[in-house]
Write a structure and sequence with these properties.
By secondary structure, the chain is mainly α. The protein has four helices and no strands. The chain has one domain. The chain has helices spanning 3-28, 39-58, 68-84, 89-93. It is elongated, with a radius of gyration of 16 Å. It starts with a helix and ends with a helix. InterPro entries: CCB3/YggT. Keywords: Membrane, Transmembrane, Transmembrane helix. Belongs to the YggT family.
């Protein structure tokens, strides 16, 4: 395996995991009675809140609906496609030998 392939796989897994976590946050917004301070969900909040808090300051909730996780799903998906997609930058900059 080439280093570029390893980097591509690692970035792909990381960005896919981030997308999954943000989608989980979107689903949890449908259930306002769920507390993100209890154990299983506290890990989700710890992983995503550093991204969501600054976004909420720039774009406050619209009509009581927090759209920051939706914005981050779009950003992370775009990054994943640009970096490790079929013609991603990682594979273009470091072609297989």
């Amino acid at each position: 395996m080439t280093p570029a392939l390893l980097v591509s796989i690692g970035l792909g897994i990381l960005l896919s995991a981030l997308t999954f976590l943000f989608i989980m946050r979107i689903i949890l917004t449908w259930y306002p009675q769920v507390s993100l301070k209890q154990f299983p969900l506290s890990w989700l909040a710890i992983a995503t809140e550093p991204f969501l808090a600054p976004t909420r300051r720039l774009i406050p909730p619209l009509g009581g609906v927090d759209i920051s996780p939706i914005i981050w799903v779009g950003i992370v998906t775009l990054l994943r496609e640009l970096l490790v997609g079929q013609q991603g930058l990682v594979l273009l900059l470091f072609p297989a030998a």
